[in-house]
Amino acid sequence: MRPRISLLLLGLALLALAGVLALTPSKSELRSGESAAYRVGPLPEMSLVVAARDTEYCGYHTACGPGKRTDTILYVHLRGGQAEILAIPRDLLVTYQGVSGKVNAIYGRMGADGLRRAVEELLGVPVEHYLILTFDSVAKLVDAVDGIEVNLPEPMRYTDRAAGLFIDFPAGWVKMDGKDAVKYMRFRHDASGDYTRLDRIKGVLSQVAQKAQSPRYWLRLPEVAQEVWHQIETDLNLPEALAFLPYARGLTLRVASLPTYEEGNYLLSDPAQRASFVQGFLGLAQGEATAVPEGRVLLVNQGGKGGQWLEGFAQMALPEPELREENLGLEPGVYISSSALASPRSRQVLELGRYYSDLLHLPLIGRFRPVVEGYDAVAVLDPPPP
Fold first, then answer.
1. 267 and 122 together in one domain
2. Global pTM?
3. How far is Cα 340 from Cα 265, in angstroms, rounded to an integer?
């Protein structure tokens, strides 16, 4: 297989894990102005909802297959080589077509297209397509890059004997294969529940995307991507996706979670705050900052070579942020706190994160728990040491 084809199929494998398919219109559609729901400038745009189905059990230790509820829901907006991914908590209370309940139950009642329409109404932005994954397909994609490594601050334990689910990870660095990674992403039995679960999903996504940049996986991933495609429920077709995957090369990720608050067994989202946040998050692609946004920024170098980064800021006549050499166990990225995104300073924090994401060529990632307390943005400059 030629390297170029391998890279295109590699893109499919990565984007399937992220819940993204980089799609653009055909030449005829570009001429007619059809297909894409909305565009800005010359770059193609596409939007879709991505979900992973939970597992249905019909007896003790007996899995019947994918369930009717969606364990993970992502809204994905693509513009050229940039992807903005907004995680929607599964316990979010929504009212759609006169029925109120958790958003993760909509797929079971109304199917994939019903979920697409519900997310469109919830966020107030177009959602053109849907893509539904199974946990088995996610596990295969993690295995395709030889698994992941995570640094757990405390042990992670949970047992569901009826479902045959046993989670027992010690504190510290843990090597995980695909099945373990799925357990890690699904774990909800800690103090912050769904919030930190979404952070774990983003972390796995970031690590797999980082590892897949290595040429050692380029020949392996295409075969896995082809296999995984047949486990996906979508209104897109594989030839269409493969034809448009060149736009996925060099993909830049920006990831955040929809701000919510707890009330009983549900998570709620204030409509006005939600609309402001969504427009601010997606609006980041519309223009470039002309000055350094205000806010407290920390640069973290995990490899012990921090001085060269500050030299770069000096050469560009930019204010030097605070620099710390510390192993946080995180993949490179600019991290902003979801709590700040739910505050009146949401737009300012988003602009600050976006500025340093563009400046340092790092993905922008929103997390429920701040990476380091007291900072609006923390830029992790390099991978953790082995």
1. yes
2. 0.69
3. 23
